[in-house]
């Protein structure tokens, strides 16, 4: 069987970096320019903004939301949506807590269990959508609530601490880069975000799964008619996104040195906001991981910058909302033009 | 063209934020307050107290808290943004003390005093903790109970929790005071309803059934008190003296209608005020007590609309 499905922005530029930079360049330039402007404005407005420790705080704040946004990007490119990323993250953190703290097993097993739980839940969501034909919004809304409830049940509604797992907090808080370059103590959580983003970008650009991800979003019917088992690929995308949420679960648990079972609601919307600011279309078929990364950074810079400027909390929320609308408006205006 | 529009929009939004009133004040001492919440009436009352102290001591404060008490990581992000601003001191009520320890150490190394408030911070880094003295508050409830039942007879306690600090302190404060000051009053039982209204109702009904001569019940938090009130309604035990804790619409309604005699309310305004005051004093190197009692009030039908009381009650 020779199906030739190309993503809408097939490109001849060689090399991963080239590919990352060349497609959808315009929107990402917009997003990137906005990011730079935000950084400049905040630096001018407050002498405390542009200092190493604060920049690291911003990156640290981006790490969890960034990983969730990468997961959301994959699903959104297929034309779907995943509302369960936040509570799935919490659920996987609780699973890690059960394996490491309750059962006292070694660290790698805890990490593997969290990621496996993520893949399994993603597989379930994907199956509800592909096999049972439940719309993604409803299927993942249900999943969001199921996972929130299960996290509370399994943990007994109490945080699970990782005090008996030495090194667990270093996964996110430690700094391998800082060990090599003491001037640049970038936390491991940030490093993991970039590795996840690179890997996801590679999958999207270079693998069959990536090509089908775009194809499902552009024209699912055409892909099906060309003899492809679209259900299987769709489930695979949700499972992959679930696995990435498992990584986010480990990151947040490590950062807090605990699995907080009540956390997670609302995180899905922030992840989706980052994806949208980064220029990925909610109607599917288009999107980049680099854009999402920039989107997540814009959200974090904005939140942090407004805080450092001591803007009242009510207004921080207003400004963040305005920026989201602005970003999507810019994107739509560009599309209409081209 | 388009990018210019985006740029203008971004700049516009930022100009808006820069123009907001609290943005740039000149050379005032800056004290960020990181609370456990923001939207809830209780926290808005804490904020009002903090604002009042900020005006009085001429310092600049910001008051922030996550949307829900589950968002531990958001609170940590708030704390690190606060530290980036090189504040003179910080007020902090930890959602999870353990998660905050690395940043609190950072504050300590930078010589920034941390004032804990409300439930405080489980660590020796904070210079002081501004909170309700729950032992004393519950002792006041015991005195009021004694007064209302004529200093004699049987009473019971419906407590919210046997493990949390507030649960233990409010129970023991009540029991100890009865033993010391009111020897003719017998506390027949202490039972726990987890602060859940329905569970507390069942607990209170069981107590009433088992002790027909009971004169009064003390409910140690909002849910417990409402549970006791429900039990009184369901069993038509009109002569029972009910004393509660905190406020909330159901409880204030019960007090107005006379089913509940009165309740102890904490003083969230005082918590905010004392936190900022202690932070200012800490920067001046003053010795602070380990705990600052932020006060509490007993309120009943007669003073529930008193402006001082009304200000600290929430719906």
Mean pLDDT of chain B: 88
Could you report the average pLDDT of chain A, rounded to the nearest whole number?
Answer: 88
Work out the helix count of chain A: 14
- What is the structural class of chain B? alpha/beta
Distance between the termini of chain A: 35 Å
Instruction: Give me the CATH superfamily of the largest domain in chain B.
Output: Response regulator
Q: From the alpha carbons, calculate the radius of gyration of chain B and give it in angstroms.
A: 23 Å
Q: Major sheet of chain B, described briefly?
A: 6 strands, parallel
* CATH-derived architecture of chain A: Orthogonal Bundle
CATH architecture of the largest domain in chain B: 3-Layer(aba) Sandwich
**Helix content estimate of chain A:** over 70%
User: Would you give the CATH topology of the largest domain in chain B?
Assistant: Rossmann fold
User: How would you classify the helix and strand content of chain A by structural class?
Assistant: mainly alpha
Low-confidence stretches of chain B: 18-25
CATH topology of chain A: ABC transporter involved in vitamin B12 uptake, BtuC
User: Order of strands in the sheet with the most strands of chain A?
Assistant: 1-2
Distance between the termini of chain B: 51 Å
Give a verbal description of the structure.
The complex is a heterodimer of chains A (338) and B (315). A two-stranded antiparallel sheet of chain A has the order 1-2. Helix content of chain A is 72%, strand content 1%. Chain A has a single domain (24-337), classed as ABC transporter involved in vitamin B12 uptake, BtuC, CATH 1.10.3470. Chain A is mainly alpha-helical. In chain A, helix 4 runs antiparallel to helix 5. The radius of gyration of chain B is 23 Å and the shape is elongated. Chain B is of the alpha/beta class and 315 residues long. Classes of the chains: A mainly alpha (338), B alpha/beta (315).
